[in-house]
Amino acid sequence: MVTIPAIDMAATGRNITKLRQDAGLSVKDLQMLFGFTTPQAIYKWQHGTAMPTIDNLVVLAVVFDVLIDDIIIVDNGVQAQLGA
User: Fold this and answer.
1) What angle do CA 45, 69, 43 make, to 5 degrees?
2) How far apart are the first and last CA of the chain?
3) 46 with 60: CB under 8 angstroms?
4) From first to last of its 84 residues, what are the pLDDT tens digits of the chain?
5) Is the pTM of the predicted complex or chain greater than 0.85?
6) Separation of alpha carbons 31 and 38, rounded Å
7) Cα angle vertex 21, ends 76, 43, to 5°?
8) Contacts of residue 15, Cβ cutoff 8 Å, sequence gap at least 6
9) Residue 46 CB partners (closer than 8 Å, separation 6+)
10) Fewest C-beta in 10 Å: which of 24, 49, 66, 73?
């Protein structure tokens, strides 16, 4: 068995919410920054039902003045068996 890291989407969503609030930004601010017609993608990120794409993570990292690694919460406890 090998331990495979996995993204904890719910914790990452809570982290995105916290980072947004710490930056003094509203969901509407991020919506406008990304040029989204609706805020649904941002709400999905914050609720942990979807992840930002890599390019959107890069933008979030710049906007929040953090590393991408500071946005994503990784759960290191996933076990997997490799090989046949």
Assistant:
1) 10
2) 12
3) no
4) 677 889 999 999 999 999 999 999 999 999 999 999 999 999 999 999 999 999 999 999 999 999 999 999 998 765 656 665
5) yes
6) 7
7) 70
8) 71, 72, 73
9) 13, 14, 16, 17, 20, 27
10) 24
